[in-house]
Structure to design on (302 residues):
């Protein structure tokens, strides 16, 4: 928590920050194995977010499910997930902030951004359960399920996560189609083309039935956050999370040119807190420690 408030500041981007600091991204699994080749860079990122004021740091396991790694030709599933947790713990220990939470990051994104490559039925549930159990056993404090974009995979992921007994924070991602003013679940242009569009409200209704602790919106454009959070608030009475993306993805890497200054980002974040009572706030892709620092400075003493 920040100061005397009930707000947790989650760190900003991990994957795009690894890229910004010169770590090569893997086209098949993005940053999933970056901390194996560049552990000191990830440790530095965790450290910089803690210095900036983050009270929650997330593990570099967003795309570290077994099916994603295997599609990338990587077979060290346990090592990648466990070492990511170890690096987050090391950063917390070195910074001597016992109150910092470590969030085990998971996502339902398919291998190579191709939904037809996802395992089906019980196999995908087992894969999600395997990663959730491994992160829980490794000592994360919460499970952070990010970028939920379709009901089927969301339910398959969130069930096993809730079964671990850890608090589960779930983040949904939204967008608007060019020819439709209705909020839809996020689809990256040029990717996930084989995944059918779904309304944001439909996904939200299905996720609200599950026993997650905290629910909200992430990896969504700044100017859509208010609409998406309004939809969540109309259906969800529990704790709310909010963290947006800035910039945009190219075919393989993140483009930092279309970004937002820390001051602009903080103006939006304060609105999420004031209008929707968001209690977990931070940054997603494209954000940096300076965005978290600016947010923390505004929240200290509130």
């Amino acid at each position: 928590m920040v100061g005397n408030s009930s707000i947790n500041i989650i760190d900003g981007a991990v994957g795009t920050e690894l890229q910004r600091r010169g770590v090569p991204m893997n086209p098949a699994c993005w940053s999933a194995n970056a901390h194996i080749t560049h552990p000191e860079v990830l440790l530095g990122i965790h450290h910089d977010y803690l210095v900036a004021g983050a009270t929650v740091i997330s593990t570099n396991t967003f795309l570290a499910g077994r099916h994603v790694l295997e599609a990338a030709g990587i077979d060290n599933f346990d090592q990648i997930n466990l070492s990511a947790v170890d690096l987050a713990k090391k950063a917390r220990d070195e910074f001597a902030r016992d109150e910092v939470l470590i969030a085990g990051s998971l996502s339902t994104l398919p291998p190579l951004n191709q939904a037809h490559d996802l395992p089906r039925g019980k196999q995908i549930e087992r894969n999600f359960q395997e990663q959730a159990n491994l992160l829980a056993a490794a000592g994360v404090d919460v499970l952070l399920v990010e970028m939920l974009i379709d009901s089927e995979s969301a339910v398959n992921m969130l069930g096993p996560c809730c079964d671990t007994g850890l608090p589960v924070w779930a983040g949904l991602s939204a967008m608007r189609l060019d020819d439709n003013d209705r909020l839809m679940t996020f689809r990256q242009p040029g990717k996930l083309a084989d995944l059918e569009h779904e309304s944001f409200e439909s996904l939200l209704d299905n996720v609200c039935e599950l026993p997650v602790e905290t629910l909200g919106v992430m990896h969504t454009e700044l100017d859509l956050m208010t609409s998406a959070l309004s939809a969540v608030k109309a259906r969800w009475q529990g704790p709310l999370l909010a963290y947006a993306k800035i910039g945009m993805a190219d075919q393989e890497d993140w483009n930092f040119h279309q970004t937002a200054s820390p001051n602009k980002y903080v103006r939006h974040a304060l609105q999420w807190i004031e209008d929707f009572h968001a209690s977990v706030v931070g940054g997603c892709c494209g954000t940096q420690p300076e965005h978290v620092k600016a947010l923390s400075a505004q929240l200290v003493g509130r």
